[in-house]
Design a protein that fits this description.
This protein is mainly alpha-helical and 185 residues long. It has three domains: 37 residues; 70 residues, Serine Threonine Protein Phosphatase 5, Tetratricopeptide repeat (Alpha Horseshoe); 63 residues, Tetratricopeptide repeat domain (Serine Threonine Protein Phosphatase 5, Tetratricopeptide repeat, Alpha Horseshoe), CATH 1.25.40.10. It contains ten helices and no strands. It starts with a helix and ends with a helix.
C-alpha cells in the first residue's frame, strides 16, 4: 500500500514538473512569436525587464497591445501601470478604451467616470462618456456630458460635431448642419 502511495506521489510530482516546464516553454515561445510580429514590443519588453517599476513603460506596452488587438494583454499591463500610479487619468482613460475594445461597456463607463472624478478639469473623459452615449443612442445623457464639456471649454469643436451627428441620427438635418458649421468655425 505504501508503495502505491509513493508511486502516485512520484507520478504527481513528475507530472507537475513536466507540465510547469511545458507551460514555461509555451509562454516563452508565445512571447518570441509576439516579439517577432512587432519589434516595438520586443524593445518594450526589454525596457520593462530593466525597469519594472516604470509605470509609463507598462502604459506604452498596453497601448501597443491595444493597437495589436490583444486586449487581454493590454488589460494586464494597464492594470500594472495603474497599480504603480493609481491617480493617473491618462491610464484610467486607456483602461476605458481597453474595456470598450472588449465590449465591456459598463466597465468602460466606470473607468471614464473614475477618470473624470480624478481630474474634473480634463474634458477627455467627459467627451468619451458623451461618445459612448452617442454610440448607445442615449442622446439625453450625451447632451448632459456635452454641456458639461462646454462649461469647461465653451469652444470645443468636438462637442458641436458630436451634437451634429446626434441631431442627424434623430432626423433633424437643419439643426445638424448648424451644429457642424459651429464645429468648423
Amino acid at each position: 500500500m505504501k508503495r502505491i502511495v509513493f508511486f502516485f506521489a512520484i507520478a504527481a510530482l513528475l507530472f507537475t514538473l513536466v507540465n510547469t516546464g511545458c507551460n514555461q516553454e509555451k509562454n516563452k515561445k508565445q512571447n518570441e512569436q509576439t516579439d517577432t510580429i512587432d519589434p516595438r514590443l520586443s524593445d518594450l519588453n526589454k525596457q520593462i525587464e530593466n525597469s519594472p517599476d516604470d509605470h509609463s513603460l507598462w502604459h506604452k506596452r498596453a497601448l501597443l497591445y491595444l493597437e495589436m488587438n490583444m486586449p487581454y494583454e493590454a488589460l494586464t499591463d494597464i492594470n500594472k501601470a495603474l497599480q504603480l500610479n493609481p491617480q493617473n487619468t491618462t491610464y484610467t482613460i486607456t483602461l476605458a478604451d481597453i474595456y470598450f475594445s472588449m465590449g465591456h461597456v459598463d466597465n468602460c463607463r466606470k473607468a471614464l467616470i473614475s477618470a473624470q472624478d480624478n481630474d474634473p478639469a480634463n474634458v477627455e473623459p467627459i467627451l468619451k462618456l458623451a461618445e459612448l452615449d452617442l454610440i448607445l443612442k442615449d442622446y439625453e445623457k450625451m447632451n448632459l456630458y456635452l454641456n458639461k464639456v462646454l462649461e469647461i471649454d465653451n469652444s470645443n469643436a468636438q462637442v458641436f460635431y458630436m451634437r451634429g451627428i446626434a441631431l442627424k441620427e434623430q432626423g433633424d438635418s437643419l439643426a445638424a448642419l448648424r451644429s457642424f458649421q459651429t464645429a468648423i468655425s
